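Priority: medium. Attachment 1 of 2:
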């Protein structure tokens, strides 16, 4: 008894395998691509922040207001804000025109900060809400 068997052609099998691989790669790429793009955007911001160095030159208590001299020593990042810490506690975020550019010194006055002589003040830069660089060295508040 002779059976009439037919198989799939080798060419058809090769074409189907190639199509299957292309479909798998395209599905994988559409899934992974958004994560890669998001990570690359964050890496650019992080790279800018690596070199930021802020310093507090002086801190004075002037009738209940805290008057600071802050200098941006170096760094390419255009900071959008500063966080001011008194004895480790966040007192007031500062943004806008009070944020120094590279090699610029700004005088920042924070009303109602209630910083007293002997307390320690430090600053850290922010770039679009992300902490940029490291916290500055602490400076002791003096009376004006």
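Attachment 2 of 2:
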């Amino acid at each position: 008894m002779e059976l009439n068997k037919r198989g799939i052609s080798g060419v058809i099998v090769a074409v189907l395998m190639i199509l299957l691989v292309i479909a798998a790669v395209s599905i994988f790429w559409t899934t992974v691509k958004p994560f890669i793009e998001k990570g690359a955007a964050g890496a650019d911001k992080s790279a800018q922040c690596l070199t930021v160095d802020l310093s507090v030159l002086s801190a004075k208590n002037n009738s209940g207001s805290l008057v600071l001299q802050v200098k941006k020593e170096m760094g390419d990042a255009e900071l959008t804000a500063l966080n001011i810490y008194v004895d480790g506690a966040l007192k007031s975020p500062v943004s806008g025109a009070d944020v120094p550019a590279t090699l610029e010194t700004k005088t920042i006055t924070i009303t109602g900060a209630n910083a007293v002589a002997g307390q320690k003040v430090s600053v850290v830069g922010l770039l679009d809400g992300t902490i940029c660089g490291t916290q500055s060295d602490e400076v002791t508040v003096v009376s004006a």
